[in-house]
Specification:
about 500 residues; Rossmann fold; UDP-N-acetylmuramoyl-L-alanine:D-glutamate ligase; 18 strands; about 35% helix; multifunctional enzyme; heptose-1-phosphate adenylyltransferase activity; Ribokinase-like; carbohydrate metabolism
Length: about 500
């Protein structure tokens, strides 16, 4: 980077000295903020208009880690983006903001004018809802919002058309989808789901990630010695499903079982979203389930896992209490969403009641190391919507190599499922509609995976309400794959997949 450009690119905190000095000289400070991943004529016109409204133009950009436009974005790293903007004549200063919004930058810069493009003229169309907060903060410091009026271009559309790295199959899939739907259409679909009354029932799991540094082989034992570095705990299992779902619904009711010996209740309540109403039942013969994974700090690879749980069927007294609650309450829910990890909550009597009395029943049954061969989807006599991964579908039919479509039809017939979705990892998803008697394949939307743990739960958490709300089946599958692509970028259940990020990604894909 040249010396001139180096002087333009500064640390955000530097503005605490730079801006007061410039204002003292009578300069009007104009501030622009964005990702600016691919600088195009629309950006340049925007910067020029902003500069004309004042004297000094400060441009801040979102740091790479906080860019939420789906896997693969930003195309250009923050240092390159900053250098590119600094090379523009209209730009006086550039800084990187290490946060998800412009609020920190506004607080530091305190501009006279905060400039946004014509896309933000109608604040109601801002899916993030942040433009109102930004305007309020600018006014607090004596400034005002400036909307420039220039020709707009779409960075996402340009990237999709000229820089996107998706395979031809994925591009053809997205091209066909664009002919039928816009991002606004999808936003309207989501809006129609908000008032759905949903009961989520399943096993609570606390996910612990313990990071270690490998010291080497023990001199006395045939084992690798690790030094503990740090630990993180996340709300997993059905808690994660409820958190994902709460992003698109006004209210979620969660039914689960905790262990009396160590309930983890305070941790759970702290890590559940505010719009989740809880119905906890406590079993006296166990602790709340904890799955502790040990990982390499340097590589992030999982080394081994320890489970703390009693996954025997819940005691009769607890089962009786749950059955009583369900008999009183099921009629008030539009859809019941079952997240079955096979750890004792979903007993035959509870399953029988759910399949008989739920208005709509969506189920996800998972095989794991603790229940291999014993927790199959076939233990349910009926399901309106079934969402499982391919291996679990094959386990259910004891057919490892057979044709997946034939296996799907067989399971669909047994469960009388109206809609069956099979997740296939890097191969995307395959759905089957009993009404249309047809299959539909949707490709995976990322090849980059940080951690696959919890991705299936996120997929299910969004597609179950989509099914319950009678969204088009192709949109349901598309939403699921979008959510899955975002979920595999998150370590375990460290964070939920948020509606805003889903819509940002969808907007990018459908440009």
């Amino acid at each position: 980077m040249s010396q001139a450009l180096t002087k333009k690119v500064v640390i955000l905190e530097d503005f605490k000295k730079i801006v007061p000095a410039l204002k003292k000289q009578g300069n009007v400070i104009v501030h622009c903020h964005g990702v600016f991943d691919l600088v195009h004529p629309g950006h340049i016109k925007h910067f020029q208009s902003a500069k004309k409204a004042g004297d000094i133009l400060v441009v801040t950009i979102t740091a790479d880690i906080f860019v939420k436009r789906g896997p693969g974005r930003p195309i250009f790293k923050q240092a390159v983006r900053a250098e590119t903007l600094a090379a523009l004549a209209a730009v006086d200063y550039v800084a990187i903001v290490h946060g998800p919004t412009a609020l920190e930058a506004i607080s530091v810069i305190r501009p006279n004018l905060y400039a946004k493009g014509p896309d933000y003229k109608n604040q109601a169309e801002d899916i993030t809802g942040k433009i109102s907060e930004e305007e309020e903060l600018v006014k607090k410091f004596g400034g005002k919002l400036l909307i420039t009026d220039d020709v707009t271009f779409s960075s996402s559309k340009l990237i999709n058309e000229h820089l996107e790295t998706y395979s031809p199959d994925v591009q053809n899939y997205l091209h066909a989808l664009k002919k039928k739907y816009t991002a606004d259409d999808v936003a309207s679909f989501f809006s129609s789901l908000q008032k759905l009354k949903v009961l989520v029932i399943g096993d609570t799991i606390i996910d612990e990630y313990h990071y270690c540094t490998q010291l080497g082989k023990s001199s006395k034992e045939p084992l690798v010695v690790n030094q503990f570095e740090r630990a993180e705990s996340y709300a997993g299992g059905v808690l994660a499903t409820a958190n994902h779902m709460s992003s698109i619904l006004q209210k979620v009711t969660l039914l689960t079982v905790l262990g009396k010996k160590d309930t983890k209740k305070d941790f759970i309540l702290k890590n559940l979203k505010k719009n989740i109403r809880t119905k906890f039942f406590t079993r006296p013969d166990s602790e709340t389930i904890v799955k502790r994974r040990y990982l390499s700090s340097a590589q992030g690879r999982k080394l081994f896992e320890i489970c703390f749980m009693n996954d025997a069927p819940i005691p009769d007294a607890i089962e009786k209490s749950i059955l009583s609650y369900l008999k009183r309450s099921l009629s008030s829910f539009d859809i019941v969403v079952v997240n079955d990890f096979g750890h004792g909550l979903l007993t035959p009597r509870i399953i029988a009641l759910l399949t008989k009395n739920a208005k709509q029943l969506a189920i996800n049954v998972q095989t794991n190391s603790a229940n291999a061969g014993f927790n199959l989807v076939t233990k349910y006599p009926k399901a309106d919507y079934l969402c499982v991964d391919e291996m679990e579908l094959r386990y259910a039919t004891r057919d490892r190599f057979g044709d997946l479509k034939k296996i799907t039809k067989s399971v669909q017939k047994d469960l009388r499922a109206k809609f069956l979705m099979t997740t296939r990892g890097s191969k995307g998803s395959l759905s089957y509609s009993s009404k249309k008697k047809s299959f539909s394949a949707a490709p995976a939307l990322t090849s980059s995976v940080v951690d696959a743990v919890g991705a299936g739960d996120a997929f299910f958490a969004y597609t179950a309400p989509a099914f319950g709300g009678k969204l088009p089946e192709d949109i349901t599958a598309f939403i699921g794959n979008v959510v899955g692509a975002l979920a595999v970028q998150i370590v375990g259940n460290k964070a939920s997949v948020e509606y805003v990020d889903v819509m940002k990604f969808i907007t990018r894909l459908l440009k």
